[in-house]
Amino acid sequence: MLKFGLVTLGCDKNTVDSERYLADLIAHGAEQVTDLREAEVVVVNTCGFIDAAKKESIDAILDATRLKDDGACKAVFAIGCMIERHKTELEDALPEVDVFLGTSETDRLVPELVERGFLGGAMLEHPGVRVFGGDAAHVRYLKVSEGCDHGCAFCAIPLMRGKHRSFALDDLVREAQLLELQGARELNLVAQDLAHYGRDRRDGFALPELLEALVRETSIPWLRNLYLYSAGITPRLLEVIAANPRVLRYVDTPMQHGSDAVLARMRRPERQKTIRERLQRYRDIVPDLAVRTTVIVGFPGETEDDFNVLCDFLEEMQFDRVGCFTYSAQEGTRAFDMEDDVPDSIKSERKERVEELQRAITSERYERFLGTTTRVMVDRAGDVPGRLVCRAPWQADDIDGVTFVRGAAPPGALLDVTIDHVVDDYDFSATMHAIADLPHNAERRPSRILPLATIGLSTVGSYGR
Asked: Cβ distance 194 to 226 under 8 Å?
């Protein structure tokens, strides 16, 4: 039995991909080990989004190759986004890596292992989705499409992931059912543009229909939408969110800037007027909707006046949360040929200013929750005995802060609480009144892949390929 280790870097969509690879490997008789020193093969799923991510990926690959001397490792496979963009250069620079597979080649992972004698060719069980384990096994991600058709000047994702392709609605519902069987209590829908779902299939199914199907065909208590372009947040989608309590009142929509001049150079489809009108529509149709956005500072040509316009616009729009990134030139993008004329020191300063501004905005907006009763989900036991780390509906996993609650309950449990205090601007403390709902498998989670035949899905070959 092949013992393998899997290192996953980058976004939640990469996590979903790794779960697919993990399932395929185990279905062919391999065994995952958590201690990489015990692994005969180490697979590194890379990220190539920005320079910092590339450096992290290269460091992880080099760490894996050192295990050939210090551990049981016989081969290192580097796969994923960074390989798709830089395969030739990496093959020359890292001869100690045995196999490089880009995102368009990852269906070769198992065949390469078979050809090299690490695996037998026969599939021992149906591939499925395997929980990575740990306290967050109740929080899962469902990737509904691959690739991106948008032409943002700064973004290399289309170069790594290709054109947009939506997966079949029935396959996604069955995938969600399998995740529920494995303990999913929160299902985060992800894509490069979630709102683009279904447009390429022409079968009449778009994101509203997918959400309604997930509500109808599963009992997962929390369904969350992550990363939607504003043009796709239609009145129909907002009505589905407003009408279904299990679809959380939360959207993550990337604005990227507030200056029309910068937005035009970025090749973004929205302008200030459009963003303002759409955000007002969101809040009119879905009261208490939490809206998160992202912005980039230091894009080529961004002046101090442009930056001040961005800050003024953030003040006006009052987003619940904002993620801020400094511009990083990416080879192959339209912006790569622009002069990167904002010094790194200015980029960093502007990022700090945006974060300071948004911290104050978020803290002020969060005061409206004080004294209110809400339902939170338990993520894990806290560092302080008797304290739980939970999240409210407006707190997405790993990016929006947490809510601390005194009491005892397993991960995935839903609690009714009263919000008492805002802690450190982004977190809350709350008092528990009751356990509203417990996960069905609170005592034991499956340790092996569930056969897809359990839910009638016989193949996942088209998923993510």
From this structure: yes
